[in-house]
Amino acid sequence: NRHLISAGDLAKDDALLILDTAEELARVSERSIKKLPTLRGRTVVNLFFEDSTRTRISFEAAAKRLSADVINFSAKGSSVSKGESLKDTALTLEAMGADAVVIRHSASGAPHRLANWVHGSVVNAGDGTHEHPTQALLDAFSMRRRLGGLEGRKVTIVGDVLHSRVARSNVLLLHTLGAEVTLVAPPTLVPVSVGTWPCEVSYDLDAVLPKSDVVMMLRVQKERMNAAYFPSEREYSRRYGLDRDRFARMPDDAIVMHPGPMNRGMEIAAEVADSARSTIVEQVANGVTIRMAVLYLLLGGETT
Ligand code: CP
């Protein structure tokens, strides 16, 4: 495949190739080799219509470590404010010679549409409430590094599933890789389509926690929230937050994840986020490695 738009498009062999390539690249970095010549002469455009810290910076770092030229575009301050469409923006950037376009957009499906308009590879860096495939890949990579394999591992994903592109991409990828996923959320924050997802659903975090190898907390996305879905922060935190007491009831070797940005004190207590069993900082570092692997495979190496 020329593009990476959905985690669901990855067969098991594709996903393992990306994870194994990232493992090789991590070994190269550990030998203090900071830059590889692989994508010299290629251009990666980061096309961000929505805010981002981790994803935008890590795609830039990944492309630069592979010696690609990088063009960073953010909708704020561009001609998008004058009404220029996604198509015209994309064609303008392609005319500047983009070999790959990394896109984040508030509209679910924007990367899919973009792939019909440009010749280069399209990488979905988060589209609306739909998917965030490189986040799922970096999460799987982080789990594999901490736990060994993913086959049969029990992964619990907790919180605002309704608005979470991270949850959907993780469910699809983790299922492909043989893990068993349970989503835990208030009934108002579970999407109607969840019955078609390859996972279990529970409303009782305390019942699921003791059986989990991984507990992934999701950000409560207040900016996408309707008050009817979310009556009270305190009630949410009491029933679905990972606080000190709940953390103590997890198995001793279970890990805690969060894609960031976090609402400390709401979905996750600060001391849990900062504990030795939290992978949150590792996830950010692994994000650069995974994005290097994705760009390398799409632009420079074997095709996925
Ligand atoms: N996890 C994640 O996508 O973070 P950003 O929104 O900061 O990129």
From TrEMBL:
<dbReference type="InterPro" id="IPR036901">
    <property type="entry name" value="Asp/Orn_carbamoylTrfase_sf"/>
</dbReference>
<comment type="subunit">
    <text>Heterododecamer (2C3:3R2) of six catalytic PyrB chains organized as two trimers (C3), and six regulatory PyrI chains organized as three dimers (R2).</text>
</comment>
<feature type="binding site">
    <location>
        <position position="165"/>
    </location>
    <ligand>
        <name>L-aspartate</name>
    </ligand>
</feature>
<feature type="binding site">
    <location>
        <position position="55"/>
    </location>
    <ligand>
        <name>carbamoyl phosphate</name>
    </ligand>
</feature>
<feature type="domain" description="Aspartate/ornithine carbamoyltransferase Asp/Orn-binding">
    <location>
        <begin position="151"/>
        <end position="298"/>
    </location>
</feature>
<feature type="binding site">
    <location>
        <position position="54"/>
    </location>
    <ligand>
        <name>carbamoyl phosphate</name>
    </ligand>
</feature>
<feature type="binding site">
    <location>
        <position position="260"/>
    </location>
    <ligand>
        <name>carbamoyl phosphate</name>
    </ligand>
</feature>
<protein>
    <recommendedName>
        <fullName>Aspartate carbamoyltransferase</fullName>
        <ecNumber>2.1.3.2</ecNumber>
    </recommendedName>
</protein>
<feature type="binding site">
    <location>
        <position position="135"/>
    </location>
    <ligand>
        <name>carbamoyl phosphate</name>
    </ligand>
</feature>
<dbReference type="GO" id="GO:0006520">
    <property type="term" value="P:amino acid metabolic process"/>
</dbReference>
<feature type="domain" description="Aspartate/ornithine carbamoyltransferase carbamoyl-P binding">
    <location>
        <begin position="2"/>
        <end position="144"/>
    </location>
</feature>
<dbReference type="GO" id="GO:0044205">
    <property type="term" value="P:'de novo' UMP biosynthetic process"/>
</dbReference>
<dbReference type="GO" id="GO:0006207">
    <property type="term" value="P:'de novo' pyrimidine nucleobase biosynthetic process"/>
</dbReference>
<feature type="binding site">
    <location>
        <position position="261"/>
    </location>
    <ligand>
        <name>carbamoyl phosphate</name>
    </ligand>
</feature>
<comment type="similarity">
    <text>Belongs to the aspartate/ornithine carbamoyltransferase superfamily. ATCase family.</text>
</comment>
<dbReference type="GO" id="GO:0005829">
    <property type="term" value="C:cytosol"/>
</dbReference>
<feature type="binding site">
    <location>
        <position position="132"/>
    </location>
    <ligand>
        <name>carbamoyl phosphate</name>
    </ligand>
</feature>
<comment type="function">
    <text>Catalyzes the condensation of carbamoyl phosphate and aspartate to form carbamoyl aspartate and inorganic phosphate, the committed step in the de novo pyrimidine nucleotide biosynthesis pathway.</text>
</comment>
<dbReference type="InterPro" id="IPR006130">
    <property type="entry name" value="Asp/Orn_carbamoylTrfase"/>
</dbReference>
<keyword id="KW-0808">Transferase</keyword>
<comment type="pathway">
    <text>Pyrimidine metabolism; UMP biosynthesis via de novo pathway; (S)-dihydroorotate from bicarbonate: step 2/3.</text>
</comment>
<dbReference type="Pfam" id="PF00185">
    <property type="entry name" value="OTCace"/>
</dbReference>
<keyword id="KW-0665">Pyrimidine biosynthesis</keyword>
<dbReference type="InterPro" id="IPR002082">
    <property type="entry name" value="Asp_carbamoyltransf"/>
</dbReference>
<dbReference type="GO" id="GO:0004070">
    <property type="term" value="F:aspartate carbamoyltransferase activity"/>
</dbReference>
<feature type="binding site">
    <location>
        <position position="82"/>
    </location>
    <ligand>
        <name>L-aspartate</name>
    </ligand>
</feature>
<feature type="binding site">
    <location>
        <position position="104"/>
    </location>
    <ligand>
        <name>carbamoyl phosphate</name>
    </ligand>
</feature>
<dbReference type="GO" id="GO:0016597">
    <property type="term" value="F:amino acid binding"/>
</dbReference>
<dbReference type="Pfam" id="PF02729">
    <property type="entry name" value="OTCace_N"/>
</dbReference>
<dbReference type="InterPro" id="IPR006132">
    <property type="entry name" value="Asp/Orn_carbamoyltranf_P-bd"/>
</dbReference>
<feature type="binding site">
    <location>
        <position position="219"/>
    </location>
    <ligand>
        <name>L-aspartate</name>
    </ligand>
</feature>
<dbReference type="InterPro" id="IPR006131">
    <property type="entry name" value="Asp_carbamoyltransf_Asp/Orn-bd"/>
</dbReference>
